[in-house]
Amino acid sequence: MSIISQEIVQQLEQRFGIVGDSIPMLQAMSRLVQVAPTDLTALITGETGTGKEIFAQALHALSARKRFPFVSVNCGAIPETLLESELFGAEKGAYTGADEKRKGFFEAADRGTIFLDEIGEMPIGTQVKLLRILESGEFSRLGSSSVQRVDTRIIAATNRDLLFEVKQGRFRQDLYFRLNSVNIHLPPLRQHPTDIPLLVEYFATKTADKNGFVYQGIDEQALSQLEALPWHGNVRELRNMIETIVTLERGARITTRTIAPYILPESVTEPHPQALMRLTDVYPPFDPNETTMLYRSVLQLTAEVYEMKNAIHHLLNVNDRMQDQVITNGDAKLITSDSDQVIEFDELNLAKIERLAIEAALRKTHGRRREAAQLLGISERTLYRKIDEYSLS
Fold first, then answer.
1. pLDDT for the residue 141
2. For residue 142, which of 90, 159, 232, 358 is within the disulfide window of CB 3.0 to 4.6 Å?
3. CB–CB of 376/362 below 8 Å?
4. Which of 198, 196, 180 is nearest to 188 (CA)?
5. What gap in Å lies between CA 347 and CA 379, rounded to an integer?
6. CA neighbours closer than 13 Å in the CB half-sphere of residue 390
7. Given this model, what pLDDT does residue 353 score?
8. Separation of alpha carbons 140 and 138, rounded Å
C-alpha cells in the first residue's frame, strides 16, 4: 500500500481532525483516500476510542455521495427488539404505538451513506436483512411484505474480532465477507505513541482557540510521560485529558507537575464497590414496556431529524424536483421561488435552512400540506410539527 503525501495528510487533519504521521496511521489514511471515491462497502476495525466514526465521516465526505445524508447508527445502543424497525422502518400497526407508517434509517440514508457502528452487536435475524440490502438494495419494512429499494453505501465498524464471532456462531460468515471487502484498521494509541506529540498539539491548540486562550506548549518530559501511558481509551482518552488540562489551566505550559493530577495509577481500574451507590438503590427498575416506549420516542425524533436533513439535501441538489438551486463553483446557494434573494448555504445553520425549505415547499404547493410533505420527502406528522415549531401559517 502506498503512503500518501504530506499535503494530503495535512488536509485530512484540517478537514476531519485525523492526525498522525506514524506508519500505521499513514497506512490507514492511505486506504481511506483510496477507498473514499468508490462505492465499496468498508469495514473499519479498531479498539474503542481509535476514531472509527471520524474515518467513516471522512469516507462519506470524500465520496460522490457527500451532498446526501450521512446516517450514523450505533447497533449496540439500540435494544435488539427495536433495531430492525429502526433500520428498515415499520408499517402502521406493526407494533404497539405504530400509529403511522415510518421510514427507517436506511431510507433516510438513500443516495447517501449509512454508518453501522458496533456491527458485531447486531442480532442474527437482523443480519439476514442487512445481507439482503448489501446484495440487492432491497428490504421490507416491519409488518409489510412489499419490497423497498434504496441506494445506500454501507460503512460498518466494530471493536470485536468478527472472525472469532463467526466461529462462535454469533455473526454470519457470508455477511462478514460482504462487509469486509475493504478493511481499514485503526491501531490502538499504544502502538503508535510517536503520534502523541502531534495529537497533543492539535487538541491543545483547538481547545485554547475555542476558549480564547494562548496555548503555551508542553515540556519534553511531560510528552515522554504521556507516551509511556497505556491509553486504554486510546485517542479519545488523550483528547479528553488534554482538553481538560488546557481548559482548567487556561492554556498554561503543560509540565509533568501539570499532568500529574490527571493521571490515575494503573492499579485504579475500577471504583471501589462501596464508593458508588447502585442506581437501583435510588431509582426503582424501569418497567420494560416503558423503557421500550422511551427508546421508540427518542429514535422517532432521530429519524425525523434525518428526514429533514434529507429533504434539505434534496432541495439543494435536485433540479428536476425544485427549481430553487444553483451551483456555482461548487458552492451551494438557495434561491427562494418568489424572490431574487440569494442566501449563501455556508452562512446558514440547519434550522434556518429547514425553515426556508418548508416555506419553499408550501409556496410551491399553494399551502397544501400533504403535497408539501411529499415534495420534501417527509411524513405529514413531521411537517406539521415543524410548521408549529417555526410558527409558519
1. 84
2. 90
3. no
4. 196
5. 28
6. 17
7. 75
8. 7
Task: Give the global pTM.
Answer: 0.70
Whole-number Å distance between alpha carbons of 96 and 187: 44
> Grid coordinates standing for 19?
492526525
Do the Cβ atoms of 221 and 81 come closer than 8 Å? no
Tell me the Ramachandran region of residue 212: left when phi exceeds 0, alpha when psi lies from -120 to 50, beta otherwise.
left
With beta carbons less than 8 A apart as the criterion, state whether 365 and 375 touch. yes
Given a contact cutoff of 8 angstroms between Cβ atoms, the answer to whether 92 and 46 are in contact is no
235 vs 65: CA distance, rounded Å:
28
Residue 373 to residue 392: CA distance in whole angstroms:
14
d(CA 129, CA 330): 37
Confidence of residue 305 (pLDDT cuts 50, 70, 90): low
Here the cell at position 284 is: 426503582
Dig out the grid coordinates for 188 from the structure. 490502538
Residues contacting residue 67 through CB under 8 Å, at least 6 positions apart: 313, 316, 317
CA contacts within 13 A on the Cβ side of 94: 20
d(CA 97, CA 5): 54
- Could you read off the pLDDT of 32-84 as tens digits, one per residue? 999 999 999 999 999 999 999 999 999 999 999 999 999 999 998 888 878 88
Q: What residue type is assigned to position 355 of the chain? A: R
